[in-house]
Amino acid sequence: MAKKRGRPSFFGIDLAWSDRNPSGVAVIRDGRLVACSGGLVKMSEIVDFIGDHLSRRNGSIVAVDAPLRVPNETGTRNCDRALSADWHRYQAGAYPANRRLLERDGVVRGEVLTAKLSERFKFHESDVVPRRTKGRLVCEVYPHPALVSLFGLERIIKYKRGRGRSFEDRWKEFDRYRKLLRQLRKADPPLRRTRRLLKSTEVYGLRGAALQAYEDALDAVTCAYIASYLWKHGPREVTRYGSLEEGHILVPQAARFR
User: Among 43, 65, 48, 109, which Cα is nearest to 225's?
Assistant: First the structure.
């Protein structure tokens, strides 16, 4: 078990909508990537990962790329609709989330995760992350608009599977994704100690489960960085879509997008 620290821990979870698929997890502390994985399947593994790296004091933020609260049986949530209206021009719209889609395994996994983190570690879901909070908060985020905002992109990075995208196309976009994340070494807050993940791993040639695991790991790192950004800068540099009661998504707002 990893030694618990006193500094704030910032977790990112790229949570699979089904327990048949792996999820990505990452943790940042003191501006350094401490650990990450793209291969956790069981909910218990994800919760244990957080417990192993949880700060004893000074706050911890868990940023999750998956719906945490879904009141609507069909259609889409208000937060997904509002975010898509703002970010459609960058091809960064949100996927529609409803219980009919998400309960194919009988539960909404984001709701289960939030409940388990509350029960075991006293986290609570929040649609506001106060600057430098000492609380333990869980929030929903979305990497696509966050990356567009943080790096001033004209459109999303197209590293995911999609119609007409070859492996060669995706490998090039993964390489672009990695280079952008490396730039965060000099950002505020910074993200360091990423060389093994971002430079030492050979992405060209990865396919199938190996490529998916790498994608999940990168997205989890992005979510963890968003968590650290929210904590460092507070609500003034964040756009909140939706509400706590009906579902929310938090997007960091770089100067160009304010």
Answer: 65
